[in-house]
Design brief:
Elements: H1 10-48, H2 52-68, H3 70-79, H4 85-100, H5 106-135, H6 139-167, H7 177-189, H8 214-246, H9 250-278, H10 280-300, H11 306-318, H12 321-331, H13 336-364, H14 367-371, H15 376-385
């Protein structure tokens, strides 16, 4: 529990720091495989002569399984504690990708990628709950846990390119290395977490969220979907868009994508620190509000100013990232695994499904026109968040900042 100044006591920080560090590093190892499948697509096309439709089918299988199945694993972990899913999911996620380059069969490749997606889905709900227990009420600790995943995702193209460009798809077994490291990190972290993950927040004194608040959780999930549509849409098209708007080449687009991911890494950690001081909901609302003019500027302003606008947009999208997870868990204190699965997985898949619609609109009109609707999405998210309260506070209560992510004040 945090002190009145909103900071975790020193002795508690010492107990929290090492498990969270191990979990964060393990999270990075798992989420490498979130980005690895897409990074393998050019090699599938060049070495196996897959059509773009066949290659996109592989990416779709991985992304849908890794996101849509997460709530199912979350529901299972609501009934039974399954900390073993962390090392098992990590190992499965890496094994599927590592073996995908060895077979010439499209069906078997699809099946192996599906194994990786299921491993990712199995890992995340339980990992989020375990990390919540290990954080002992620290927003900043949860921010570091989320940062690990973001960095792993961003590192995936570099790792895949380094391995496959050198040895071809037959070198894909080398991609198992991060999974082995992540499995070891999970096994090292779990014995250090003394509180049972499923009961970590409910067991804290003063916890008020005695029942599941589905109405608030649905509103929060709707806001996260709006955020996901913006982020996935920009991730898919920002490189090409910046090249068009600046007149630059491939490097100009690559820099914009790097800024989008780098801003996310900074924003995730900043979100935890800001929430400790000002409360989760105020920080989340201001982040969505900031994203509206940032995306508008990105779409409407040409030239070099696009780069700071990309950074501002990235910060607005990523500052609330880890706060979404803890807030969702506190709205569903009896179904924390389900909450984690939805906020980390299912809502993200909505953004992926919206991306082809943006592409179709761009084909029919222009990329500039297709990205314009993204301006509205964070505004819709802000409206959904506007009347939410911290878990455990009545609907008529003022929107008071809290210093603990479990919904009670120190």
């Amino acid at each position: 529990m945090q002190g009145d100044d909103g900071h975790v006591p020193i002795d508690q920080t010492s107990r929290t720091g090492r498990p969270i560090t191990l979990l964060s590093l393990g999270h990075a190892c798992v989420d490498i495989y979130q980005g690895a499948v897409a990074a393998l697509v050019p090699f599938f096309v060049s070495e196996r002569a897959y059509t773009y439709a066949a290659a996109s089918g592989i990416v779709l299988a991985a992304s849908l399984l890794s996101s849509v199945v997460q709530p199912l694993f979350g529901a299972l972990t609501d009934k039974w504690a399954m900390p073993w899913l962390l090392p098992a999911g990590t190992l499965a996620s890496g094994t599927g990708v590592a073996l995908a380059g060895l077979t010439g069969s499209y069906a078997l490749t699809l099946a192996l990628v599906a194994v990786s997606g299921i491993g990712i889905a199995a890992y995340h709900p339980e990992a989020a709950r375990v990390a919540r227990g290990a954080s002992r009420g620290s927003h900043t600790a949860m921010g570091w846990f989320s940062l690990g995943g973001n960095l792993g995702f961003a590192a995936a193209p570099l790792m895949v390119s380094a391995v496959i460009a050198t040895g071809g798809l037959h070198a894909s077994p080398l991609l198992i290395v991060p999974a082995l490291a992540g499995t070891a990190l999970c096994l090292a972290a779990l014995p250090r977490i003394t509180a049972p993950p499923a009961a970590a927040s409910a067991a804290q004194p003063g916890h008020r969220a005695a029942r599941d608040d589905w109405a608030s959780f649905v509103k929060l999930s709707g806001a996260i979907m709006c955020r996901s549509i913006v982020f996935v849409g920009l991730s898919a098209f920002i490189s090409l868009y910046v090249r068009q708007r600046t007149g630059g080449g491939d490097a100009a687009g690559a820099v914009a994508l790097f800024v989008l991911y780098l801003g996310g890494a900074v924003g995730t950690v900043a979100g935890g620190r800001l929430a400790t001081r000002f409360g989760r909901l105020p920080v989340i609302r201001w982040s969505y509000a900031l994203t509206v003019p940032a995306v508008a500027g990105l779409v409407l302003v040409p030239g070099p100013m696009l780069y700071p606008l990309v950074a501002l947009t990235s910060a607005g999208l990523y500052v609330p990232f880890s706060l979404h997870v803890t807030l969702g868990q506190d709205y569903l204190p009896r179904r924390m695994g389900t909450a984690s699965g939805v906020t980390l997985g299912l809502t993200v898949s909505i953004g992926g499904l919206a991306s082809p619609l943006i592409g179709a609109l761009a084909d029919a009109t222009s990329l500039h026109t297709a990205l314009a609707p993204l301006i509205v999405m964070p505004a819709v998210g802000w409206l959904l968040l506007r009347r939410l309260n911290e878990p455990g506070l009545p609907e008529s209560a003022p929107h008071q900042p809290t210093s603990c992510p479990t919904g009670h004040r120190s």
